[in-house]
Amino acid sequence: MKERPFELFVFDWDGTCMDTTHAIACAIQEAARVLGLGVPSYETAESVIGLGHKDMMSRAVPDCTDAIYPAYKAEYWKAYIKEEDRITGLHPGMREMLTAMKDAGLWSAIATGKSRAGLARVLAKTGSDGYFCASRTMDEAQSKPSPDMLRQLSDECCVPISKIVMIGDAVHDLEMANNAGAAAVGVTWGAGRREALEKLHPIAVVDTVPELARAIGVEDLLK
Questions:
Q1: Same domain for 15 and 53?
Q2: What DSSP string runs through 19-45?
Q3: CA-based radius of gyration for the chain
C-alpha cells in the first residue's frame, strides 16, 4: 500500500467541492439591493466567501447594522436558494476523486462557513454525505481564518495537525491552515485568485482535480 503524506483530507465546501461562488456573490449583492444598502462589487462579494455568515456580511456590506442584519439574512437566503437551485452537483471530477478516496479507506472531512442546516441541505442535494467522516460548520466553531475548525477535526479524528491537509479556494481557507499549522492546497476554480493564494505559501495551487490529486498524494487512485 502506498504511504501517503496525509491522514485527514479536509475540504472547504463552497467554491471547492461545489461551484457555489457565483450564487453566493450574487445573493450578497441582491440582498443589499433589495434593502437599499450599498451594493458591493462582485469582486468584494466574492472575496468574503468562506467566512461565517455575519462576518461575511459585515465585510461585504458595512452598512448592514445589527438592527438590519435579520432582514438582510432573510433576503440573502431567499436570493441564494434561488441561485443554488440551478447547481446540480459537485465540481467536475470531485465526485470521482472523493469516491476513490473513500473506497481506499482514506478519511475526508469538511470545514465550511455554512451553517449546519445549510451543509446538510447541500450534502443531501448532491448525495455526498457518505464521503466525509466528520465536518465543522460556523455553528460549532469559530469562523475562518481561526484554526478552531481544524483543531476540532484533529481532536475528533485523532489525527495530528501535521498529518492534515486543508483544501480550499479562498484565502481564508489557507490562512486557517497556516494558523493551525496544517498543510494547505489552494484551488483556482472558486473565489480565490492564484496570486492571492500563492502568497500564503500552500504546498500547491492547482487548476484541476487531477492536479489536486497529485498535490495531496492520491493521484494513483484515479488511474
A1: no
A2: --HHHHHHHHHHHHHHTTPPPPPHHHH
A3: 17
DSSP codes joined into one string, 66-111? TTTHHHHHHHHHHHHHHHHTT--SSSTTHHHHHHHHHHTT-EEEEE
In the structure grid, which three cell numbers stand for residue 20, read together? 457555489
Q: Among all chains, which residue has been given the C-alpha cell 447594522?
A: 65
In this structure, the answer to whether residues 141 and 36 fall within a common structural domain is no
Q: Which amino acid is at 110?
A: I
Q: Is the dihedral of CA 143, 145, 150, 151 positive or negative?
A: negative
Give the domain range for residue 96.
Answer: 8-19+89-222
Stretches where the chain sits below pLDDT 50 are none
What average pLDDT is seen over the chain?
Answer: 93
User: Residue 1's pLDDT is what?
Assistant: 62
Shared domain check, 169 and 115: yes
User: What pLDDT was estimated at residue 145?
Assistant: 95
Q: Are strands 8-11 and 107-111 parallel, antiparallel or unpaired?
A: parallel
pLDDT of residue 182: 98
pLDDT, residue 46, reads 85
Residue 56, φ and ψ in degrees, nearest 5: -60, -45
How much is the pLDDT for 179? 98
- Identify the CA nearest to 207 among candidates 90, 128, 93: 93
CATH of the domain at 175: 3.40.50.1000
